[in-house]
Amino acid sequence: xxxxxxxxxxxxxxxxxxxxxxxxxxxxxxxxxxxxxxxxxxxxxxxxxxxxxxxxxxxxxxxxxxxxxxxxxxxxxxxxxxxxxxxxxxxxxxxxxxxxxxxxxxxxxxxxxxxxxxxxxxxxxxxxxxxxxxxxxxxxxxxxxxxxxxxxxxxxxxxxxxxxxxxxxxxxxxxxxxxx
Length: 180
Description:
Signal peptide: 1-21
Pfam families: Fimbrial
GO cellular component, one term: pilus
Keywords: Signal
Protein name: Type 1 fimbrial protein
CATH architecture: Sandwich
């Protein structure tokens, strides 16, 4: 009888412990490929994987501003690969597209994916080319260059028709390679 009560008490304690445990989620990104011929591999080298952008609200530009002053962060990248990849890029048969969750205003900026209580509202991350012109997201294919370093500039933008409230921003973007 004593063993049954101890067993029941121990089982109850373990169940209570599991019921009060907090979930902590994590994301693991795994990428890779298997190819029969390495000369056909194409890739992208980037100068960094994450950025920290900090702007004063007085310096934040309106969404759709054609040119910005360049105070944001820049991502530099270039294409790598075997002989066939370089030939495709040289012949204009290799392109890239920027993809990510677009904002809910004009759809031209990366949406703020932060869900915390301190998240910014009415703000997104604008993408600009090396000449500081709006860089299309989820739309146009950009022809890759085998010899040129590409650049994407990031700036915090006020979303069209929304009240901008300062806070934290989180966004993600993927550079997809496409063969033409």
